[in-house]
């Protein structure tokens, strides 16, 4: 795993510690990053990595995630509080233009990750400023900027057709989805995350500005997690459906798990993706008003857990094991076979690394209802062996489908990390 | 002023302390809320009230703003990090329904301000939950919920026509505005602010749910300030145009100033508004791409300040006085007469209390550019003596108009505070 994502608490974060153990350790101070245990799982398993409340002024190391490294930052980095996700379409043609764009973006992203402006300002005030300036005086806020190539980048515009990884293409249609073009696709996807929304916005805006004449924004989605400030106790977060949404994520501190689940290898079919990862993004609108009118019993049967405690149905505590064979006194299974937790768990053989955020985007003009939900993001070594079969199963049978609607979709081949002197995407050219 | 908005640091926050004095005090600990000095002013003067980084678990008093009081919370309360603003249209008819809605909302808002759910859950799990649950386990996060009546509430539906304050009506058209119906108006406006976006979202969603059958959402806009976590030094915040955006706000700790500028009085024409305040809301889109292509010199002449330091043009330091008569060696004024700071300052006779947030709402589908800007909010005793003349002057001549576009607009008569046992709006009926 990447050195820059490994922290000094690695050793005390090894399994099989429970979340409560970790919380107890956190109480002794110094443990800035918590890694969560398992709760709901499936598509709706938000990250439960969280920072405990930091001291007054965060130190540079707590507040900065290095940009350069074996892997890109922002993949196994514990999730920040905010996301501003930007998909771009490339308008320039030719490989040279594209390489120059990645070179400029790399320099800017590395600077911003250190809390610097995207470049030196000129002394000629008759020129536009190099940086738009709204993050001056703010800290790096754990900013990460993660770049990936969409399947359309491998068409005939840039001479990259032969470089397309064999197992990298647009997702198949899934049952029930109602994709809206304005939330789909993109030649390039950029996941920008930070603990300050203004820092994340600044990064996207300056990347878009640097791209002028070479690429244009296709779609942008902001998102949030409940803030660490508001929940210093570090309990399992709840999604916008009100249920505790922990994670069955693999252990990001286990190089073995990450190599198995997340990092692509050279012999997977595309040598340039060695150390990279494939990202799936889904904008999942929640039918909030419908959910809010359903009974607590229906809601709990939908997730397969109790809302208040987060415990699996039939069990007592949040961290009790999910036993799909447990039956009530009438011989019926406690956890319905079509509940979200039952389907997402399956036989446990498929794993993905989730990194999702909630979103709230005003009201949907068509329905007059809140346009809110989940910006689902996952990373995996192979989309078609991991994300696709899991989502096909969920799309077909998940009880949750009555209450959610997939309206956006994109996939990106996220490059390996860049070394100083190199640039993001340099293995591709 | 309201007791609940007055804190124990009142005495040390009295003028004529400078911002730096306050910062110095803050360094000694215990001073949780900073009040800022003056910087840009005008429509683009974001609140510079900020919390310093709190200790691990905020105490109840630091984290809670009492709901009940002489005035509604959320008006002179130091600005929280996030806003979720909701405008509602009433669908029920008759005064009784409306009173019941306000009674239900009052009970829910008071509970949420204490970090509680909106009501007790039933033991019958075949019923929908009373509260949607996504804020369970989160702290109150300084949640404030501020209710106001739009001019349309005083039509013939509720028998309130005779209660409309004489100086309360829809705003006149302003030069250059391009209002979009989906961002305008509303029978009722609810300003929800909190230091946790999930807490703010939860409040709006549950108010909408409680209103079912009586009122529907008309528009919702989320917003942010750069977070206290990312800027523990408390320097003047920058707006999305990259300029330091302090405030010429009156002193919220001065009862005299607040009575003069903010609080309506019984003899202003509507006895029921005594202790309330009139709110103006404008959704101001920034033409970010145009701004970003303009020279630094143009940008500085537009605001009338240097971007880097925030100092008035011709002066050296951010807090140097704005001298509109100062001239350069050629005899030209340092600060252009049509700059934002010159026009907003004027002769200093008009004051308003600003409480604005930045917003970022993905991209504008029509232009493909970022839909970002300012959710301007101000409170005043009389809209037509304060906000309207100031905005007419800005709309006519402000250099900033080249870079901004007013697309949304609403005004609300925000009720006086409710006493325990009473409800928001009870003086109206």
UniProtKB/TrEMBL annotation, chains A, B:
Query: Which residues constitute the signal peptide according to the record?
Result: none
Query: Where primarily located?
Result: other
Question: Under the GO molecular function aspect, what terms does this record hold?
Answer: ferrochelatase activity; heme binding; metal ion binding; peroxidase activity
Which cofactors are required for activity?
A: heme b
Q: Where is the Dyp-type peroxidase N-terminal domain?
A: 72-225
UniProt region (Disordered), positions on chain: 226-248
Compartment(s) where it occurs, according to its Swiss-Prot or TrEMBL record: Cell envelope
User: What do the Gene Ontology cellular component annotations say?
Assistant: cell envelope; cytosol
Which residue windows are transmembrane per the record?
22-46
Q: Where is the composition biased (Polar residues)?
A: 226-238
General function of this protein: Involved in the recovery of exogenous heme iron. Extracts iron from heme while preserving the protoporphyrin ring intact.
Entry-linked NCBIfam families: Dyp_perox_fam, tat_substr_1
The protein's name: Deferrochelatase
Q: Which organism is it from?
A: Paenibacillus mangrovi
Name of the encoding gene: efeB
């Amino acid at each position: 795993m990447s050195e820059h994502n490994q922290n000094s608490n690695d050793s005390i974060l090894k399994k099989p510690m429970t979340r409560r153990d970790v919380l107890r350790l956190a109480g002794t101070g110094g443990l800035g990053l918590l890694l969560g245990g398992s709760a709901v799982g499936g598509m709706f398993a938000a990250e439960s990595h969280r920072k405990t409340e930091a001291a007054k002024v965060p130190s540079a190391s707590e507040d900065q995630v290095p940009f350069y490294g074996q892997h890109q930052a922002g993949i196994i980095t514990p999730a920040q509080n905010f996301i501003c996700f930007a998909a771009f379409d490339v308008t320039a043609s030719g490989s040279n233009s594209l390489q120059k764009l990645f070179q400029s973006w790399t320099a800017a992203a590395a600077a911003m990750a250190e809390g610097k402006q995207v470049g030196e300002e000129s002394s000629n005030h008759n020129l536009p400023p190099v940086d738009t300036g709204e993050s001056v005086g703010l800290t790096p806020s754990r900013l990460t900027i993660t770049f990936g190539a969409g399947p359309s980048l491998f068409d005939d515009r840039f001479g990259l057709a032969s470089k397309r990884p064999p197992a990298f293409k647009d997702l198949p249609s899934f049952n029930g989805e109602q994709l809206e073009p304005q939330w789909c696709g993109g030649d390039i996807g950029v996941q920008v995350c930070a603990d300050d929304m203004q820092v994340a916005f600044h990064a996207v805006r300056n990347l878009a500005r640097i791209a002028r004449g070479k690429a244009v924004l296709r779609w942008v989605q902001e998102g949030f997690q409940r803030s660490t400030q508001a929940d210093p106790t570090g309990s399992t977060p709840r999604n916008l459906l009100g249920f505790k949404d922990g994670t069955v994520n693999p252990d990001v501190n286990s190089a073995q798990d990450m190599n198995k689940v997340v990092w692509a290898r050279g012999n997977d079919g595309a040598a340039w993706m060695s150390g990279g990862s494939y990202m799936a993004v889904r904008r999942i609108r929640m039918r909030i008003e419908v959910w809010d009118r359903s009974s607590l019993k229906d809601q709990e049967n939908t997730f397969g857990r109790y809302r208040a405690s987060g415990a699996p149905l039939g069990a007592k505590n949040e961290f009790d094991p999910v036993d799909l064979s447990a039956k009530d006194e009438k011989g019926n299974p406690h956890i319905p076979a079509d509940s979200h937790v039952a389907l997402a768990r399956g036989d446990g053989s498929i794993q993905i690394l989730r990194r999702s955020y909630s979103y709230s985007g005003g009201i949907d003009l068509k329905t007059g209802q809140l346009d809110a939900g989940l910006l689902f993001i996952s990373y995996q070594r192979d989309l078609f062996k991991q994300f696709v079969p899991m989502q096909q199963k969920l799309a077909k049978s998940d009880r949750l489908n009555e209450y959610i609607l997939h309206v956006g979709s994109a996939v990106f081949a996220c490059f390996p990390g860049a070394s100083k002197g190199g640039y993001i995407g340099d293995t591709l050219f």
